Amino acid sequence: MKWQRPALLWTAVLAAGLGLWAGNRLAPAPAAQTPAPVAVSPPALPMLRPGDPLPALVLPNGEGHALDIRERFKGRPLLVNVWASWCGPCVEEMPELARFAEGQGTRGVQVLGMALDTPDGVRDFLQRVPVNYPIVLDTPGPRDASVQLGNAQGLLPYSVLFDAQGRMVKAKLGPFAHGEIEGWAK
């Protein structure tokens, strides 16, 4: 019996060694590892500051027609109000913006609504709460028109005032209170 124990031990060691050798020798070669794709963020947009020109923005209106904002609103001051139908404060200030736009006539400040919303959402909203100024649409995102107008926080409502030469005068984050727009837009 004594001689069987070492023979059994050597047999086990030999079998393990052969198993390791065969496993390494006969196993398929590992596939070449390709590095995982790295997400590349688009470069940050420069922050719009007072004195900067209105960015080149061409956005669809409610009917889907492209509107070149620089071209359409040149020659007069422009108040751009960024809003969405699901934004409570935006909805609350809409009548105030409509009242302001109505009182500007043909020489005053122009008002443009810029909805970060779906076409259906905007259409449904404007049927309930019509406004007398143009509305364009954009899809919310990290490079949407609101961000290009300086809304780095992405909060709504957001308004920007441009002078008659198309240069930014100032911006406001949050809704206008009743009667505030006239003083702010001077």
UniProtKB/TrEMBL annotation:
PROSITE patterns: THIOREDOXIN_1, THIOREDOXIN_2. It comes from the Bacteria. GO terms for biological process: cytochrome complex assembly. Keywords: Cytochrome c-type biogenesis, Redox-active center. Residues 48-186 form the Thioredoxin domain. It holds the Pfam family Redoxin. Gene3D superfamilies: Glutaredoxin. GO terms for cellular component: cell envelope. Coiled coil: none annotated. It is found in: Cell envelope. The keyword S-adenosyl-L-methionine does not apply. GO terms for molecular function: disulfide oxidoreductase activity. Its main location: other. This is TlpA family protein disulfide reductase. It comes from Stenotrophomonas lactitubi.
